[in-house]
Structure formats: structure tokens, C-alpha cells
Amino acid sequence: MNRVGKFILGGATFALAAVVVPHVPIVSGQDHEGHGKRRYASGDRMHRGFAGAPLVSIALKHKTELNLAGDQVANLEKIRNHYQSQATPLQQQLATIEKEIATLSQQSPANLIQIKGKIQEAKKYRGELRYMRVEALENGKAVLTAQQQEQLKTFARSRHERFRKQQEQSS
């Protein structure tokens, strides 16, 4: 391969790495494997009215304030457990794919075809997880009355505001 071809390939590899590497959990220093932690990327919200919060868990945490009946609590716990049992293997698979992308990106020269395939595979898992979150949210909303949903929005907003204040203070 001539020098110009190598230069172009190297530039393309560098550009791809500059885009991919900051989003890989291992490289960016983010811990995505904690079992008690939930992650919600900015474009991956459950629903605009309930942005970024595990609402079924928030509802269960505030079951007294929401005046949830016993059957509502049981249904919400069933929804949460079902979601977690489905999501955990997908999250583990996604973490594995992200590690593979990081490994492939560190090779010189990087195999762009393999990286692209892994990115597309990860996208499939992210889409499935997103749909599962929306499904759990909708199933959870169906358990609540309109008044309980409004109260839950208030709890979620205050939680989001506290989180934002913490982020601003740590910056």
C-alpha cells in the first residue's frame, strides 16, 4: 500500500476511534456493570414525562405516599422483577460487546469492518433494552391511577433536580 493510502486509512481509523472510544464504558471509566445501578444515556430515556428514572422502583419506594394498594405493589414488583430478569442478560451481552469494541479499537491497524459489525450488534441490544424499559413503564403506568401518576411525576422531577444539583456541584 502506498503512503497516501496508509495515511487515509490511518486517518479514518483515528477518526473512528475518536468517536467510539469515549463511549466505551471501559475506556471512559464508567461502571456499567453494577447490579444496583441503572444507566440511562441522554438519548435513551424511558419517556419524556418520566425522563431517566426507574419509575417502577420510585413508585415502590414511595408506596406509602402514593397510597398504593397491596395488589398495586404486587403488580409493580412483578413488572420490575420481569424487567430485571429480561434485561440483565442483555446488559451483560452489551457490556461484552463494548469490551470487544474497545479491544478491536486498540489494535493497529483496527479492523473497521469488525468494529462496525460490533457497533451494529450493540445497537440491536440497546434498542431491545430501550423497548423493554418503555414496556415496563407503560405496564407500570397501567397499574397506577391518574392521581398516582401525577404524584410519581413529582417524585421523579424532584429526584432529577437533586441529581442535577449534585452534578453541578461536583463539576
What does this structure look like?
- With 171 residues, the chain is mostly helical.
- The protein has a domain of 106 residues.
- Helices cover 72% and strands 0% of the residues.
- Helix 3 packs across helix 4.
- About 25% of the residues have low confidence.
Q: What order do the helices and strands come in, and which of them pair?
A:
Elements: H1 3-20, H2 25-28, H3 55-61, H4 70-106, H5 112-143, H6 146-170
Helix pairs in contact: 3-4, 4-5
C-alpha termini separation: 47 Å
CA-atom Rg in angstroms: 20 Å
Number of strands: 0
Mean pLDDT: 78
Q: Strand fraction band?
A: under 5%
Helix and strand pattern: HHHHHH
Envelope shape: elongated
The proportion of residues forming helix, as a percent range, comes to: over 70%
Low-pLDDT residue spans: 12-53
How many helices does DSSP assign? Answer: 6
Derived from helix and strand composition plus strand pairing, the structural class reads: mainly alpha
Biggest sheet, in brief?
none
